[in-house]
């Protein structure tokens, strides 16, 4: 019992004492000036989408990357796999890998977004696609992290726990716009999917908000 209490206290202290950094994801039509503005607002990571709903590589991703890369900070890529496009998780991951490779963009990790429960017919779909794309990512030496919310993960995967060894970006807002923003820290996190507070690398605390004249989602993360 005491061991559990000490573990809980350690988790709370690590969350409250964390040194948080800022990140955003950006629309595919962002301009260089808008990107420069976001960088000046101390956003250390910019997330760029790499996949279309048809499971093909998003050809605008290299342009976004080249528009922003000179302003400093890290460019991270994410993909949102879709179950209804007839492509396996492996195919969708391969499309992203080959697309970035053809654009001569090197990357070592990717964040997999699992959301929009209405897109998924059963938990087995999400679990199969996730395992499939991870296997292909491993073949290319690409590490995978997950982005999801507690409610989405429960609804889509039936709270599958087999991915808990991967780092988590936790989506936690109360709706779109500034009024739906939550605290820019990890406080209030409740374990799900086998992930604990030690699994957390980042949190989405605001979505569809205006910054530098563009609509972005905002994150905090720890290094």
Automatic annotation (TrEMBL):
- Gene Ontology biological-process annotations: innate immune response; signal transduction
Its signal peptide is 1-18
InterPro entries per the UniProt record, alphabetical: GH, GH25_Enzymes
Q: Which UniProt keywords apply?
A: Hydrolase, Signal
Q: Name one GO molecular function term.
A: hydrolase activity
Q: Which SUPFAM superfamilies match?
A: (Trans)glycosidases
The keyword Flavoprotein appears for this protein = no
Query: Mind telling me which Gene3D superfamilies this protein's record contains?
Result: Glycosidases (3.20.20.80)
Q: Supply the name of the protein.
A: Glycoside hydrolase family 25 protein
What is the organism of origin for this protein? Caenorhabditis elegans
Q: By which gene is this protein encoded?
A: lys-9
